[in-house]
């Protein structure tokens, strides 16, 4: 259907170009192979991403964040996209500091426009050196962020992808992700649900007009 292309953003919350980078890129590649999508990618690697300092500049001025750093690039991609995948490595049993900073800093654009992310669809993916090392708490934090932002969080569903894509990298970086068949299966289930939900939301929006 013309105009029904889903704009999909993949975000890697890792400071390295290893397992998380490969995990998110694999998800975008799968979406491109199976669906009518346009994709964008943002990696925390090498980026200037300052902590939210809760100065309330964004709330007082409605002009965005007081920090002028690489979040400006990410904000544009977030607003552009219909659907997001946030991928994080597991650090100390939960998501990475870089992922948390990116989510915290979204307060600035929501303060300017509380509905800016409303009804966008979001999924999460997490990878760890252990099979069960904090992937689910990390995904729960990502889903909480989506709910607070008035987005629609999705997972791949029961039996293998309860909260999203979960990978066991075995500390082997991209090679570990690529060899994790269960992780790849959870990713594919999650991407299917993400794109199908985004399509339903987009079709409903067209019908309302």
UniProtKB/TrEMBL annotation:
Taxonomic superkingdom? Archaea
Look up the record and name the cofactor or cofactors this protein needs.
Answer: FMN; [4Fe-4S] cluster
Q: What GO MF terms are annotated? A: oxidoreductase activity
Name the InterPro entries for this protein: Flavoprotein-like_sf, FMN_Rdtase-like_dom, ISF_SsuE-like
The NADPH-dependent FMN reductase-like domain, residue ranges: 6-161
> Which terms are listed as keywords in the entry?
Flavoprotein, FMN
The UniProt entry's sequence similarity note says: Belongs to the SsuE family. Isf subfamily.
Tell me the protein's name. Fe-S cluster protein
Coiled-coil zones: none
């Amino acid at each position: 259907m013309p105009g029904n292309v889903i704009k999909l953003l993949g975000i890697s919350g890792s400071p390295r170009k290893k397992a998380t980078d490969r995990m998110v890129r694999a998800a975008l590649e799968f979406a491109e192979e199976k669906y009518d999508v346009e994709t964008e990618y943002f990696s925390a690697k090498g980026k200037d991403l300052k902590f939210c300092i809760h100065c309330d500049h964004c709330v007082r001025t409605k002009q965005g964040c007081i920090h002028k750093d690489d979040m400006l690039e990410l904000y544009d991609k977030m607003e552009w996209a219909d659907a997001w995948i946030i991928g994080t490595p597991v650090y100390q049993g939960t998501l990475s500091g870089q992922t948390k900073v990116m989510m915290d800093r979204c307060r600035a654009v929501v303060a300017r426009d509380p509905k800016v992310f409303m009804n966008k669809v979001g999924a999460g993916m997490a990878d760890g050196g252990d099979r069960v090392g904090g992937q689910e708490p990390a995904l729960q934090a990502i889903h909480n962020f989506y709910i607070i932002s008035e987005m629609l969080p999705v997972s791949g569903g029961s039996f293998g992808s309860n909260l999203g894509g979960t990978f066991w990298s075995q500390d082997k970086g991209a090679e570990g992700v690529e060899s994790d068949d269960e992780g790849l299966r959870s990713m594919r289930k999650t991407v299917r649900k993400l794109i199908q939900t985004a399509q339903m939301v987009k079709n409903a929006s067209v019908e309302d007009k």
